[in-house]
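2024-03-11 09:14:02 INFO worker-7 job=invfold-0412 stage=load source=structure_tokens
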């Protein structure tokens, strides 16, 4: 990781860098006071380095992702790779606190990347090296692996449902789930809009996306769909929406895991 272009945080608590400011203070760069405040904030949070790494380019620095309210960058904290979610200066929210609390609640049921710490402008969690679901689903070449990922997602979304935490982006999860590089385990990310007030179901939306979504076309996925009774799946999903019971969730998981053989 040290071979990548990186910035030592301690070097920039008093020294201004316009390229770094474009990321730390996005979408503005000529904001010296905010830049120094944020760099000092990162230092207090224990962040040692920021890396130019990722698929998105902002000026001369590469980042992991760019959204409407935040930028995600790769960093290092006490020797550990971390993802640093940076609140945009033009964001329609004032703090990262709510998302941090939602991620911590998800972690309590073993869902999401490991939460580490946060401040008003930053959310820091363990970096998950992998590819987004939307990219992975186009390349997966094993029906057993596809089925395994879907089963794990069903289990994770059930656990979120069990505590009433609804991730509001899971009806189209291709940018909100990372398939981990070494284990192929799915990791749900981006709890920015998560809510305890919604009546939606995480499990039903994920299952519908994979198994009842005609726009998602993948040869292996279509093969998996053929091995599952659509009528029975509809029945179970409808029942689950009403009851939200583990007994029903388990039947859905069993149906998937046994479609065309074991995992």
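2024-03-11 09:14:09 INFO worker-7 stage=emit residues=263
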């Amino acid at each position: 990781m040290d071979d990548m272009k990186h910035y030592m945080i301690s070097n920039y608590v008093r020294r201004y860098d316009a390229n770094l400011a474009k990321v730390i203070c996005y979408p503005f760069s000529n904001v010296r006071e905010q830049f120094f405040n944020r760099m000092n904030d990162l230092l207090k949070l224990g962040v040692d380095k920021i890396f130019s790494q990722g698929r998105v380019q902002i000026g001369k620095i590469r980042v992991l992702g760019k959204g409407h309210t935040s930028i995600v960058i790769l960093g290092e904290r006490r020797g550990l790779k971390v993802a640093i979610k940076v609140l945009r200066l033009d964001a329609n929210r004032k703090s990262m606190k709510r998302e941090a609390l939602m991620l911590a609640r998800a972690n309590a049921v073993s869902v999401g990347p490991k939460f580490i710490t946060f401040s008003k402008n930053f959310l820091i969690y363990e970096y998950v090296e992998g590819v987004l679901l939307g990219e992975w689903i186009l390349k997966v070449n094993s029906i057993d692996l596809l089925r395994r990922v879907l089963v794990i997602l069903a289990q994770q979304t059930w656990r979120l449902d069990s505590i009433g935490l609804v991730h509001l982006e899971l009806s189209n999860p291709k940018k909100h789930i990372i398939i981990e590089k070494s284990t192929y385990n799915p990791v749900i990310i981006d709890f920015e809009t998560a809510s305890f007030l919604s009546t939606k179901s995480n499990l039903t939306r994920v299952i519908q996306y994979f198994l009842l979504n005609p726009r998602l076309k993948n040869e292996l996925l279509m093969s998996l769909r053929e091995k599952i009774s659509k009528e029975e799946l509809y029945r179970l999903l409808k029942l689950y929406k009403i009851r939200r019971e583990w007994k029903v969730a388990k039947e859905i998981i069993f149906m998937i895991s046994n479609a065309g053989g074991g995992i």
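2024-03-11 09:14:09 INFO worker-7 stage=report msg="Residues 143-162 form the longest helix (20 residues)."
2024-03-11 09:14:10 INFO worker-7 job finished
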